[in-house]
Amino acid sequence: MRYPKLFEPLELGFVTLPNRILMGSMHTQLESRAGGLERLAAFYAERARGGAALIVTGGFSPNDAGNLGPHRAQFSTREDCERHRVIPRAVHEAGGRIVLQLLHSGRYGFHERIVAPSALKSPINAHAPREMSAAEVEQTLEDFAQAARLAREAGYDGVEIMGSEGYLITQFLAARTNRRADAWGGPLENRLRFAAEIVRRSRAAAGRDFIIVFRMSVLDLVEGGLDAGETVILAKTLEAAGASILNSGIGWHEARIPTIAQAVPRGAFAWATRRVKQAVRIPVVASNRINSPESAEEIIARGDADMVSMARALLADPEFANKARAGDRAAINICIACNQACLDHYFTGEPVSCLVNPRAGMETQLNYGKTTRRKSVAVVGGGPAGLSCAAVAAERGHEVTLFEASGALGGQFNLARVVPGKQEFAESVAYYAERLCRLKVNVQLNRSPGYRDLQQFDEVVVATGVDPRRPDIPGIDHPKVASYVDILSGRRQAGHEVAIIGMGGIGFDVALYLLEGGSRAPLDAHAFAAHWGITQEGKIEETTSRPKLQVTMLKRSTGPFGHTLGRTTGWVHRAELARHRVRMMKGVEYRRIDDAGVHIVAEGKELCIPADTVIVCAGQEPMKWGQTPFQARNGVCPHFIGGAKEARELDAERAMREGAELAAAL
Ligand code: NAP
Ligand code: SF4
Fold first, then answer.
1. At what angle do helices 270-277 and 228-241 cross, to 10 degrees?
2. 648 alpha carbon to ligand 1 midpoint, in Å?
3. Residue 646 has pLDDT above 90, yes or no
4. What is the pLDDT of residue 631?
5. Top mutation candidate among 342, 656, 657 for ligand 2, by most atoms within 8 Å of CB
6. Which of 486, 452, 493 is nearest to 629 (CA)?
7. Which of 514, 605, 595, 518 is nearest to 552 (CA)?
8. Torsion-angle region of residue 397: left (phi > 0), alpha (psi -120 to 50) or beta?
9. Is 167 labeled as catalytic in the residue annotation?
């Protein structure tokens, strides 16, 4: 077996888990929607069939105050218990096990009724909490116990008590947020009592043969959080209180250290979990940025943890565990940690999906059934849209030919993969190339088909992508001007004084590439910890860096810098560029580019931004090739997807989704 430790059974006393893969909790936005529980049942059942040993649902609050948002995602009544039955039933029928996550948001709830140990507002929430009275503390403990009892009745195999990431239980644990003078505040011993009581009462309410996972923060990454020694005391206390498994949480949501974004290397925090594992006898789970079977195997083999939690990894590939068990690594669709379709969706109120697997979260709606009428399909363009379309069409039984003008599949992903922290894009390209090969897609590289070539196909899909925009600025042909493609493809090198025209996602990526290119921080846990100033004790130290070059970024609009970046990842990019003292200017008018640099008008004044290299990152236009030859063809009506359809707002998530949706309908 290729990953022997990962597939060793795990004995919990009253139940044996078949392997070491726990599907971590993800809030999907379906928790509070009409019909959401039925969709969740299909979503979890697919992951159970895919071989995950234990699944954790998204968070449900044990009472009203603990809801995460204004919509009710609560598990506290008999009606909730009845409505939920569909989920454990579907998972059990699929051969899996599932626990319900109980999450009380505390001061992180986005509504008016939030409560916390002390009335201290969180820096990431506009709403301020009310301090809980002693009676409310007591009632909340009972609410957790009642929810655990109901979870058992609903058919769940257990509960996960969410005690990390800065939610209510963490707020009780840390002096940062707990200023109480009663029996629930003050010394550590008092602050631990709330967490321990929840476990103790849930155990008493739900019985001995019921899984209680406690998700504890192994690293708080905020000032006033628990230190390493206190974390160990917490772990021992939870074990004594009756927890079956300790899962790891990393960092509070208000921490200013990336914990799951692409900037984080694989398995970056397993060392902190190891400390907890060494202190207790119950199984301990490592978490965050574990997306491949080899990193999971390594973590368990090294003795850092007994299990690994994978959440987004199983959004990207529900069959992850079965494929890993079979040793078929190349068949796994790896999560690239982009957050674009999962967390970014969640925080804009949309149901969660996955960039590299558009079917995630759509299990009852987007199905790739076998076709009854096999067609010949030409896909023109081997970027994200074309790859996704060709793979699904071939999987459905169509005979697919994919034409790619360059010598490699991947399109814009091949540019993204060189940006520091975006190396995972290479995984997607490799996965799709392998999938096309297994599905016997006729891939023709270095080939732009002509009109006649395409006439022989039943269906033609144009996925030719985009060309970088060349803004109409005097001097744009100056030899010092390069496009982002020139720079990211390595065709051109930048000098020491760089001006970047355009501040969208690609402008930020290019700046990061110039300033952090070659950094080990996104690849290596030690380099990452040093880069972000994380000490072994779990404290944060200030770090500085000497910029290797002077970069100025420019844009015409006046909105905030980087406002189009990912909702949950943009701050990481901004923090990196601030560290390198990148100069950012908005509301500028471009006058000309010449030997001296870029001449602009800003705040009514003319000035020159000195530059030996000017990099244009001014968005894209649809590639000309796709636009003209197909306008008036007889017979075949081409389909346009991705950048060929709409270059404005181009993004890989839309491209891959359009590819899959079109292929599902062909
Ligand atoms: P973009 O987000 O549309 O940004 C283009 C930039 O060029 C804007 O800052 C715009 O700003 C400027 N611009 C547009 N027309 C111009 C003109 N004629 N002259 C001068 N400046 C002009 O495009 P992108 O940065 O190429 O990104 C493409 C897509 O990929 C976007 O959807 C983006 O979200 C996505 N992406 C995302 C990330 C991420 O980190 N989440 C990373 C890479 C790419 P002004 O109009 O203000 O000058
Ligand atoms: Fe992973 Fe991106 Fe998919 Fe989220 S959207 S699961 S981060 S690949």
1. 50
2. 9
3. no
4. 43
5. 342
6. 452
7. 514
8. left
9. yes
**pLDDT value of residue 614:** 98
Closest ligand 2 atom to residue 337 Cα is: 7
pLDDT computed for residue 309 by the predictor: 98
pLDDT tens digits along 161-209: 999 999 999 999 999 999 999 999 999 999 999 999 999 999 999 999 9
For the chain, where do the domains classified as CATH 3.20.20.70 start and end? Answer: 10-347
User: CATH 3.40.50.720 residue ranges in the chain?
Assistant: 376-467+621-665
Q: Is the pLDDT reported for residue 394 higher than 80? A: yes
| Cα dihedral 405, 494, 415, 506 in deg (nearest 10) | -120
Domain 10-347 classification at class level = alpha beta
* Best CA proximity match to 358, nearest among 319, 378, 383, 385: 385
Mutational test site, ligand 1, from 355, 651, 654, 656, max ligand atoms within 8 Å of CB: 651
Among residues 3, 167, 484, 513, the one annotated as catalytic is 167
List strands edge to edge, sheet with 550-554.
481-483, 613-616, 497-501, 550-554, 583-585
pLDDT digits (tens, 9 = 90+) for 469-515: 999 999 999 999 999 999 999 999 999 999 999 999 999 999 999 99
Structure tokens at 2: 């290729």
The Å distance, Cα 524 to ligand 1 centre, comes to 30
Residue nearest to atom 13 of ligand 1 (CA): 618
H/E stretch holding 86 reads helix 86-93
CA distances from 586 to 468, 573, 578, 589 (A): 21, 17, 16, 9
Quick check: 123 and 175 in contact, CB under 8 A?
no
Which CATH fold topology does 376-467+621-665 show?
Answer: Rossmann fold (3.40.50)
As a CATH number, domain 470-618 is 3.50.50.60
What pLDDT digit, counting tens, does each position of 574-612 carry? 999 999 999 999 999 999 999 999 999 999 999 999 999
Q: How far is the CA of 335 from the centre of ligand 1 (A)?
A: 24
At 460, list the tokens.
């033609």
What residue spans in the chain does CATH classification 3.50.50.60 cover? 470-618
Residues forming beta bridges with residue 399, ordered by sequence position = 376
Pocket lining: 21 vs ligand 2, CB cutoff 6 Å: no
- Per-residue model confidence (pLDDT) at position 630: 53
